[in-house]
UniProtKB/TrEMBL annotation:
Domain of life: Eukaryota
InterPro entries: GDP-Fuc_O-FucTrfase, OFUT2-like
Catalytic activity: L-seryl-[protein] + GDP-beta-L-fucose = 3-O-(alpha-L-fucosyl)-L-seryl-[protein] + GDP + H(+); L-threonyl-[protein] + GDP-beta-L-fucose = 3-O-(alpha-L-fucosyl)-L-threonyl-[protein] + GDP + H(+)
The protein, known as: GDP-fucose protein O-fucosyltransferase 2
Family label: Belongs to the glycosyltransferase 68 family.
Amino acid sequence: MAHRAVHILRLWTASLYSCTLSVSFVLVTLVAFNAANADDVFSASHTATASTSMARDLRYLLYDVNPPEGFNLRRDVYIRMASLVKTLTKDGDDWVLVLPPWGRLYHWQSPDIYQLRIPWGEFFSLTSLQVNVPVIEYEEFIAENGGPFIDQVLVLQNYAEGWTDGKWEEKVDKRPCIEKLIYSKDKQGFYRGWFWGYEETRARNVTCISAQGHASIMAPVLQKNITVTSVMLDRAETLLHDHYAGKDYWDTRRSMVFAKHLRLIGDNFRATHLNSTDISDSTVYSEDWTRMKAKLGSAKGGPYLGVHLRRKDFIWGHREDVPSLKGAVKKIRSLMKKHKLDKVFLATDADGGELKELKRLLPEMLRFDPSIEDLELLKDGGVAIIDQWICAHARFFIGTSVSTFSFRIHEEREILGFDPKTTYNRFCGDSEKECEQPTHWKIVY
Ligand SMILES: Nc1nc2c(ncn2[C@@H]2O[C@H](COP(=O)(O)OP(=O)(O)O)[C@@H](O)[C@H]2O)c(=O)[nH]1
Ligand SMILES: *[C@@H]1O[C@H](CO)[C@@H](O)[C@H](O)[C@H]1NC(C)=O
Ligand SMILES: *[C@@H]1O[C@H](CO)[C@@H](O)[C@H](O)[C@H]1NC(C)=O
Ligand SMILES: *[C@@H]1O[C@H](CO)[C@@H](O)[C@H](O)[C@H]1NC(C)=O
């Protein structure tokens, strides 16, 4: 429990610091921030402690993802790992999923902000996640495990020979590592690696596994071949979904409730700038995700157009399916007119120069633009979530082609009960011939 207390203390200090320094959002929000986190932290700790003392053979599944992958693809990999844990526990074994701390993400570029070793509780509601599968934060794992040691790291990779005979089949085999290991042995014979910035973490053993198939293909390996207590799957994105958009997928997705303080800040922005409240917009949210079962078309949404305009690496490749700023603004204006909306909320990762140009082309656009003090508190991940939350409550939404950031907004709107016509829309490239619109994935309850 000790480090938990420290964690809470740290959050308090951060908040107080922010209050005195900045004209922060709303005091109420900050208080809620602490309450939400403290709540989550205690219950997580409680659950895990209870299970350790009772179960004889509690085992830990850790995982990490290819470093360049962004926040929202990582959220998708979580769903695959949760699915694997469900398979493992179905067979009567006691497994807990250790949440990989957030940090050093390629897109989190706000300068001079400490963004390392961020626990999941800062972005998601841990109590909500735990209703779905047993999860704990990494620091809790260290405490329960008696130190920063991971028994076995399995580096997942494809097959060196590719698909044999061009035929797809599900398989998993112990194989020599194809790429150079990003782990190295220290003087004591332990393996050192990135481990989310926890320099003191060590692995006792690292081996490579070629895997081709859905996440649960790893279950027999983890049950039979490997008997140690803690196993980490690195490059976990190698594994596919057990059943994309099936009930299990949606259960996990629905359990990924954003942390309350972030939702409150988003709601406050909606109320202040967009005349949008849950009651008037029919988007009433239940804290308990298992009770959220809104009928499609029941949500009305706030009187604004929600836009996710992905830039940066999406335009550097001169992709055909991404519009110019001019093209995007033209589409935004036409949608505002068509849906009789005079407000537009824009979420974007556009850089300084592009933002200036956007402001010139679309002076009335509203953005969530935190002060540096608020950014320190929320971090790039929190700001991204607030952007997504506001877009998720718009009467009409348009996103960017194949952006997982946009996909996660689609899902959030599906959960809230929006008519699919208002959700599954994307910008087309200026000269894109066949501009296929995103697929509607219905929730399976
Ligand atoms: N706040 C904010 N961040 C964004 C936005 N678009 C992209 N980003 C950042 O860029 C990252 C994009 O990576 P990812 O989430 O994997 O989505 P994808 O690359 O669009 O599929 C996000 O995680 C954010 O950090 C946006 O509209 N608002
Ligand atoms: C697991 O063990 C079985 C039986 O000993 C063996 O055939 C198989 O190759 C092993 N799989 C891996 C991935 O090590
Ligand atoms: C490392 O793990 C592999 C695969 O589980 C195992 O075959 C090997 O014996 C282990 N090495 C050590 C030194 O424990
Ligand atoms: C805000 O929305 C309500 C309906 O929900 C409407 O009656 C009111 O006129 C709106 N206020 C403004 C300032 O647009």
